[in-house]
Amino acid sequence: MKTILEILNLSTDFLKQKKISNPRRQAENLLSDALGMSRLQLYVDFERPLTEPELDTCRKNLARRSKGEPLQYIKGFVEFCECTFIVNPHVLIPRQETEILVEMIAKELEKLDLKEKVLWDVCCGSGCIGISLKKRFPELNVILSDISPDAIKVAQANALKNEVDVKFFVGDLLEPLKDQKADFFACNPPYISQPEFAKLDVEVKQFEPTTALISGPTGLEFYERLARDLPALSNSGLRGWMELGTGQGERVLSLFSESPWKNCRYEPDWSGHDRFFFLEIE
Predict the structure, then answer these.
(1) 59-63, long-range: CB within 8 Å, 24+ apart, which pairs?
(2) What is the pLDDT of residue 270?
């Protein structure tokens, strides 16, 4: 029977042949997940032989990764803002930028009285934004919505997993919320244009849900709809936070430049790319 080190070396060589980036680190992650061990433990116990069921799991996971499937989908969950979220190809994989956005929102909310206040997480996907905020602010009423029924099922499972009580609606953008009113708004909408989509990495364009990625010909379609329709569904003084695509800051700002919008602005991420948009209604 082959040892951990032998499987690790063989897996690294296989992923390298398949042109997977960082093949050693990828092999370590795949093997540690399959064995329920940390990466450090792999090297501490490198002479331990693998059982046949363990080898079978490693082979299956290695085959999936060699085709470009993201590690997060293979593992089945991610850690995000001190919560654990189930992920599968029905939802986008939560990224570090979104975690930064949640922290930005939390810094604002912790200054406020949130009793009877309502926050919407629109285009919620896995529910990582709304559920993380509900976990941190239990007094906040949180509503999550998405056009995909399959995504909502994942978000519902994540709400149970993280033991939070939130509401769910299925429908296109703000349509399922037309009888509601919001005090706070969070959204990571589709913002990839159709031409940009063709240039994305295989891991993204072949495995993550296209409806959560592609906005339309320009990439601005969802921001245009929100600028037009959100005021009618908002309580006075609504504050909102959104993610942006690279280079979209000025164009999105122009959409939110007239009354009732005020104090709208965008900020870059750590790489200097337009990423976070802040909005407010009079």
Answers:
(1) 61/30, 61/33, 61/34, 62/11, 62/14, 62/15, 62/27, 62/30
(2) 87
Q: Quick one: tokens of 52?
A: 């046949």
Residue-wise pLDDT for 217-257, tens only, equals: 999 999 999 999 999 999 999 999 999 999 999 999 999 99
3-state secondary structure of 186: strand
What is the value of pTM for the model shown? Answer: 0.94
For 49, phi then psi, to 5°, come to -75, 150
Give tens-digit pLDDT for 165-176.
999 999 999 999
Structure-block tokens of residue 25: 């680190």
**Residue 250: how many other CB atoms lie within 10 Å:** 9
Structural contact between residues 24 and 12, judged by C-beta atoms closer than 8 angstroms: yes
Give phi and psi for 244, each to the nearest 5. -120, 160
State which amino acid sits at residue 6.
Answer: E
Bridge partner list, 77: 86
Is residue 150's pLDDT more than 90? yes
What pairs with residue 3 in β-bridges? 49
Residues in Cβ contact with 3 at an 8 Å cutoff, skipping those fewer than 6 apart: 46, 47, 48, 49, 50
With beta carbons less than 8 A apart as the criterion, state whether 145 and 175 touch. Answer: no
Query: 33, 61 in Cβ contact below 8 A?
Result: yes
The pLDDT value recorded for residue 132 is 98
Report residue 123: phi and psi, to 5°: 60, 50
Q: Do you know the residue count of the chain?
A: 282
Q: Are 274 and 268 in contact (CB under 8 A)?
A: yes
Report the C-alpha gap between 100 and 105 in whole angstroms. 9
* CATH code of the region 88-281: 3.40.50.150
* Separation of first and last alpha carbons in the chain: 69
